Amino acid sequence: EGKKMKNNIFMTAELFKTLGDVSRLRIIKILASNENNTFCVSQIAEILGISQPAVSQHMSVLKRIDLLRSEQDGVKTFYSINGQTFREYYQLVERMFEMAFKKCDESFIRGEAECDECLEKGSE
Q1: What is the pTM for the complete model shown?
Q2: What does the domain layout of the chain look like in residue ranges?
Q3: How far apart are CA 106 and CA 69, in angstroms?
């Protein structure tokens, strides 16, 4: 459980880093609000008013954490939101916020204890 929690912390940090860009948040909004549609880079670039290379870079970052699905159609790649992963990240973040308010001892805060040890002590 402690190792899983540590992974969850790193996954949450990676998610926040990925989402820490206005253009990427706007791309997610476009794709998530049109969950059954696909968009190519040029369409998203036009909607956002930014260059296609910039959109491609943002798509690559979002795809790296599995938030996007992609399919090739000739020379174009069409993207859609990966709804399952999106919901898993939502649950992960929700859990991390819940855990943030549980009491931890100093050894965990210093990185000397695993989360499950900390949580067991906190629940006693």
Answers
A1: 0.76
A2: 2-122
A3: 42
Which residues in 64-94 are b (16+ Cβ under 10 Å) and which e? ebebbbeeeeeeebebbbbeeebeebeebbe
Higher per-residue confidence, 52 vs 98: 52
Amino acid at 115: C
Model confidence over 87-98: pLDDT tens digits? 999 999 998 888
Distance of CA 12 to the CA centre of its chain: 7
In angstroms, the Cα distances linking 47 to 4, 15, 18, 77 are: 39, 24, 20, 17
CATH topology assigned to domain 2-122: Arc Repressor Mutant, subunit A (1.10.10)
Convert the pLDDT of each residue in 55-64 to its tens digit. Answer: 999 999 999 9
Tokens of 29: 């909004």
